[in-house]
DNA sequence: GGGTAATCTAGAACACGTTCCAGCGTGACA
DNA sequence: TGTCACGCTGGAACGTGTTCTAGATTACCC
């Protein structure tokens, strides 16, 4: 897969880093209130105290902005999960439990979740590097939860991919009101059976 | 789940049915050329020979229009699959084969596929009834491919859901250039293992 | 401290999805 | 045939994502 022409991000000054954080924080805040459509670029810029053009310099589109927000949030979940790993008999149980925890985390701010996930699935090729990064974090979350002694087998990696697909798609159906949390749990548990298969 | 207030679609006259088909055909044509963003409501209306307001009377948003297009296309695949069912040893193989065929069908018009899938995943709650319909067709496609003698078991239905999630999400990753066809095939085959599990 | 290139600001401008409106057909019913 | 209700038309108008420009500020190097 081709990597888009990304000139290896020049290091940001302190002020710039602060601006970036302000923007991300504002985006998350607006999203928490009204979801995807409440994140309006002009308002993000105003609230973050930055010109519209600057906002676009940091995040080339609304989708980029929200995907970056998702990276941020997932990172938090990952840190938290590493501090308190799920306890369970087998890898499948631990993974399902970990993902359900993450799910409940998202559930606490459903509008924010909606905004981030809409952005994630709406992303076109120009955002694929960033979306890939999100996918990588999710994969790491799952692998962590498996708590393996040895490196994962080919079959386990294949199973992780399917679990990731299921996680992602189940999230979407839940957000659009087409599946209950209970159903999501069942779907995740079903997918996780792949981990303990021969 | 609440069904949105849909006054049970009054029957369309012949002219109206023709308009609807013209609109859908135009949408598919524009999408085939340039994907999601090439489907511009003004252009659809002009090309289909209807006023913009009329277009919106038939399809309340661009997403509705493209989801309806997807329903249409899926229906075609389903008819075709029923005429030429996949031959394979076990249900899992047949399902994987059927889905890969559908995949290749979409691959033939990648821009159209992109437009439809972007719409599908971007859809919010106001489109959930239509999206659900797409999901139902996909489910039927899979169940058909299983070629069961008896009604499916609870486990099989759970597996079908995960396969559907995988199908859907794999499609998205392929469209955004983050997974190859070969990878999609592997993912589908992995998910289909759930069908032949004890 | 001075010069210079990069970055930031304010705001106008543009594109496209969506809404709205006034008036014209058209088909159903008396 | 008259009339009434409904759908359709053409087009203006609005909102929000995105782009662009001219000038102010900042960061960096000598």
From TrEMBL, chains A, B:
Q: Which Pfam families match?
A: TetR_C_20, TetR_N
Q: Report the InterPro entries cross-referenced here.
A: Homeodomain-like_sf, HTH-type_TetR-like_transc_reg, HTH_TetR, KstR_C
Alphabetically ordered keywords of this record: DNA-binding
Residue numbers of the DNA-binding region are 40-59
Q: From which domain of life does this come?
A: Bacteria
Q: Which GO terms describe its molecular function?
A: DNA-binding transcription factor activity; transcription cis-regulatory region binding
List the signal peptide residues. Answer: none
Q: Determine if DNA-binding is one of this entry's keywords.
A: yes
- What residue stretches are annotated with the HTH tetR-type domain? 17-77
Name recorded for this polypeptide: TetR family transcriptional regulator
């Amino acid at each position: 897969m081709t990597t888009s022409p990304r000139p290896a991000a020049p290091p940001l000054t302190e002020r710039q880093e602060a601006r970036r954080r302000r923007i991300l924080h504002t985006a998350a805040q607006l999203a928490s209130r009204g979801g995807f459509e409440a994140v309006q670029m002009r308002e993000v810029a105003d609230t973050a105290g930055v010109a519209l053009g600057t906002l676009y310099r940091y995040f080339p589109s609304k989708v980029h902005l929200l995907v970056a927000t998702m990276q941020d949030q997932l990172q938090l979940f990952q840190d938290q999960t590493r501090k308190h790993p799920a306890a369970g008999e087998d890898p499948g149980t631990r993974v399902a439990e970990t993902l359900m925890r993450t799910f409940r985390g998202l559930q606490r701010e459903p509008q924010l979740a909606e905004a981030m996930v809409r952005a994630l699935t709406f992303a076109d090729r120009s955002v694929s590097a960033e979306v890939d990064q999100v996918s990588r974090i999710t994969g790491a979350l799952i692998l962590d939860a498996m708590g393996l002694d040895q490196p994962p087998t080919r079959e386990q990696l294949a199973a992780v991919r399917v679990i990731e697909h299921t996680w992602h798609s189940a999230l979407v159906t839940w957000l659009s009101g087409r599946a209950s949390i209970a159903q999501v749990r069942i779907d995740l548990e079903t997918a996780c059976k792949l981990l303990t298969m021969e």
